[in-house]
User: Fold these one by one.
Assistant:
Number 1:
Amino acid sequence: MATLGIPQKWGFGFKPRGTVYWKVKAQSRKEDIVIVGAGIAGLATAVALRRLGIRSLVLEQAPSLRIEGTSVTFFKNGWKALDALGVAAELRPQFLEIQGIVVKTEDGRELKSFRIKDEDESQEIRAVERRVLLETLASKLPSDAISFSSKLQSVKEDADNATLLQLEDGSQVSAKIVIACDGIRSPVAKWMGFPDAQYVGYSAFRGLAWYPDGQPNDPNVVYIYGRGVRAAYVPVSSTRVYWFVCYNSLEVGPKITDPTILKKLSENFVHGWPSELLDAIKCTPDDNIIRSPLVDRWLLPGISPPVSKGKVVLVGDAWHPMTPNLGQGACCALEDAVILSKKLGDAINNGRFTVEEAFASYGYERWPRIFPLTVQANLMGALLQLENPVICSFRNSILIPKMANLKGMLRHTNFDFEPLTVTDSV
């Protein structure tokens, strides 16, 4: 079985427990496969390729893994992908499986509740700490697989059908294949002709609360709906609770990083709401609270560029940023990683088709999945963020109590794909 090798020229120091660090001295070089971005999509793609016997180099602009942030919720399609990546068994015991979903009004009145297994016995929902997820994925890669402090400055076509990646430190990487997993502001996507992701009219505070003596909540996702504001909290583990507050805002507003201000603003939006939510906000450490404007980009047929250009391809948010209203952004990034890697593996290891054909097949297969989800998530968010009192009254008295159906709401998680054929050649 053929493999793509990467010359091991850089010295790395690997710390096996806790945060993973590599120290790198940048230099110009040639590579077979370069993945841009060491986030969820990038690390998942690198792990998937490695399981197929294919090596890659991951370029990450930060000096270490970007473990800041809160948690990521995975539904059964996400866990299927994590199983394919060989990390699900390691992650599952660390995080609580969600048993139910409860919907409340801002004054605490329950509108509807669901027992997840009663609605769908195959469903699996767990929130995973971003830090643990990234460190677990990174631990499955060789110690020389990630080049940190490697921020991409520009992209251009190189000689011999390669792509030249110019880094901010002045070094260059000429890659035969480039897989861009560099997020919603992807310079690679911009180079390929994609427009910027668009702000959808509301932003979100997110936090990860810490209860050293044990968190007090049942293993349920609790959604709370107001007028133009909504929130939720979900137990992550025995000591962690994830929460968010979404609020309408015509403008993105200035960037705020002061955690004291972020926490105060969050509390102001949900003043008088259920105490469990307010308590979670109060128990959030300063380094576990963020605010971000929510954006998406619709891959309109006949208008949006294709997912690939030659031997350059997009994965995850770099291709299809979507709002979090269906909880599918990270799940779809993992699906992308597994499906793209399998197709690329067939091209490289088996010669069934060219790399360009593999990328085109990936786009052809993924677009019918991604585009409807992006639109559905956008429309769901627009409905839930409405401020009109008549519509909110209808939502609270009829739409949720009498019409909401969990099986229908989670139908999009019924997604299947071929497993990876694991090799021990790397």
Number 2:
Amino acid sequence: MAVVIVLPRKPRFLFSHSLKSNKHCLIYQSKPSCHFIKEKMVSSSRSSDKIPAEKVSDYDRESEVKSFDDTKLGVKGLVDAGLTKIPWMFIEERQTTGMITWGSTESPESVPVIDFKDMDKESVPAVRTEIIKKVGEACEKWGFFQVVNHGIPESVLNGIIDGIRIFHEQDAETKKEWYSRDPQKKVKFNSNFDLYQSRMANWRDTLGCTMAPNPPNPEQLPAVCRDIVMEYSEQVVKLGLTLFQLLSEALGLHPNHLKDMGCAESILILGHYYPPCPEPQLTLGTSSHTDPDFFTILLQDQIGGLQVLHEDQWVDVPPIPGALVINMGDLLQLEDIVMEYSEQVVKLGLTLFELLSEALGLHPNHLKDMECAESILFLGHYYPPCPEPELTLGSSSHADPDFFTILLQDQMGGLQVLH
């Protein structure tokens, strides 16, 4: 599970909490194959200034990125230095062609808002049933929904926003002590986790805290936000487990199914901070992306700027006081399609066992009654491009140690059989 907090352009935060797992759990599939999310920069202007393409050719991004990273001050350090023009590394590449557009398309629809009030009252079981239905529909149609009356006190929500803001706005020398790109560190501050890999940096700084499965010691958390990070984490874990139950039931499974699969074992907290940008029309707070987790619990401040992609249109997600945005991650999207495919293959498998039995002159259910159809193994092979394909094989010659294999190929080809 991921937890994200968003802080303002003035500055702006986004705080997200993400549930992950070391296991490759499979979860929910909604109609869009990917649920994209982005953070536009909030500005009173809508400048259409373009960057001359000829200037891009002599640009040394590597040097600029390293110089920026070496300051250990992040984007806020640029703002504090009185920057009036943003560095090239932050400029959205489509600005070189004038292709970039801001704002969302007018849409009659909006991200569903689901009220969890009275969900656990035994006296009104119909409420929980209706909530499960709404969660399933929101996942299928949107991949996003907002929740209200979720059980986390508004004082805690406001407290974590303030705590993340205080961290990012504290003395620069103190904050530098937390700056790191070491993947082994449980608590670290930096700007853009993919700074050295992405084509464009986002106008954003982040405090990241890995809170499970092996949480940091309290003294390993920044003193200025230590207590509220720990309290918020505890509250979000409870909500995360509730969401896993609702998702399990929406899939027609036992309430503890996803939890028992180990889907709730890992928790990452990200506290994003978006300082004021002198040229907001040229960059983004967060580029369009999907989350590589089961789901993200996202707390916005009241500035706005969050958008989601729905039916090829960017739709604004206006902040609602006390609400949390739930974003289905990449791992959750797999569950439904894998389950549906498995169900279909099981039906085909039983038909094949009947045909094989009859081909052997036996009763149609003979092989099935011998328990030949009891075990199913699903394998999803991936063959990346190979620089020297003439020297290796994707799969060596072999026989399958089972009754039979049902194999689905893509359209690339390459499968051979010995005959």
Number 3:
Amino acid sequence: MSSSDEPENSSGGSPQAEAELGVTSTKTASTSRKKRRHESEHSDDIRSRDTSTADESLPGAKRVKKETGGDGEPLALPGYRQSQKFWYPDGNVVIILGDVGFKLYASRLSHHFTTLPLPQPPQDGAEDGAADTPARCEIESRVTPEQFETLLKYLEFPFEYPIHDAPRDTVIELIHTSQSLGCTHALRQALVRLGALTQSEDPPPPDAHAYPDYRTAIEMISIARKHDVPSLLKPAFYELLRSTAFWDLVDREGRKAVSLRQGDLLRMLIARMELGKAWRALYRNPVWKQSKKDRRKCTCSVTGDSESASDSEEARVRRVQAWRAMFPEGVLDDPDPIMCAGQLRTRFVRDKTGWCDVCLEREESVWIAARRRWWRQLDGWLGLEPRTSD
């Protein structure tokens, strides 16, 4: 057969070359398909990870990325859940407090917290994958995750949330958190703010409490002494004086159960005794004092005496008896006479019960003067630095 009769090769080469070309084409197509599949998976992975944003309630908050599963739900991280407000995607330290993790920046934390045992973040020259894994620090503390978030808010956004403008309850929380975690800068600012909010010259309103419970008051006494803020001592001791739970604990378990000096307890016992005596004298001996400027006449009907007989000694005795009978049983055992002396017309004589406004106003002025006097006397009874004002 001549060369013209042989079938023409489409590749223009030998059968061996044709076979090699077929193998090469197959490999090229396979490689292209793998590359396209890899790029598609990479794009899907990026989209699946960027599924959430930072808490928009915080100004300047960073975008937060969370790993998600195929159904778009966040993947559960072992041992903790991510903070919704403080989980920075490029953070290099995870602080675990309770069941919440906070992904933060180690440099900022070391600047704010002087005693927090922070781990060293991974270095760039670490083993493969180590630099992408943030260091973890699990903290055992009385501080709750919510309290830590509050402190972080004031540290991370000081212009939007200045401590010197924080409300009283928040300041007390900041003091507790910063003291527990060693954030001295925030602690100093919070103490200054609380000192400015603390009015110790006059007694607090009858229904107001300086601290939420006696444990917080004890903590404030320790902090006030450690950082030399004497203006915080009196309100804290007053909260202990009026706390039934505190005195019940002392009766059951003794001084060691409340972490106070023995001298503090002795002085508080003296103050309780003196306040009790003053309260009994005020309650049992109403004055109804008439001033030179107030010439209004009494129109009380509690004794049924005629106007001509109302000034007699017998009428006065009946009035005192009627006055004492108006108060509930056990009122003399109230642990807070300073509060009681501010509640004459809101707690004890709300429906007047036959007493006229003239007599009630006169007696109320005596009670208000008494509670102010007792408040000043607390300085001496508690062994605190005396005030210069009268």
Number 4:
Amino acid sequence: MTSSIRLRAIGVIRGSSPRAIHSTRSAGAPPTTNNAVTSAGRSAAEPVPVAPPTPPAPLVQPVVQSPTVHNIRVKRTIGGLRGGITGFLLGLAVAGGLGYTYLLQEYSSASALLLASVEELEGSTSKVAKYVRRIEELERAVDKQRKSQSTQQDHSALRSELHKVYAQLNADNLDLRAKLVELEGQLARASKA
């Protein structure tokens, strides 16, 4: 019966705190000896002072209760979780940094391209402005030419006047010839007479 209590006590001791171990030893469990070096630094060959034997335990021994929740220390495997979170955050920081530098390079190259296209646009705009000024000057010159040129109606009017003048000159020429022929005839008669 005592061996079963001791076994129960040992089973409880393995999972309990040092305070519980001390309390079970004082309850009547014999001290255990280690064959290697003891806590005082003596080797196993030297005689170990043994405590006087304890009086026999009463028939009714106090029941050792399992330790409460506050006494249990659970070994938590936080290292894996902590390492995972640390690795994730480190990877996030590295990826964020690399992404930021990539975006910064892309932004600078895009702004350089945009600046070049703006300069090219400015040059083409100045060329277009020159062409527009030239076109306006040519339009003014064409308007002056149109005002100074004769129209089709003016041309037909001048042509009809020219025909009249030519007809008049032709009629005058014929009259002069007729008069000249008449004068020659008179002169010829006068010279015969």
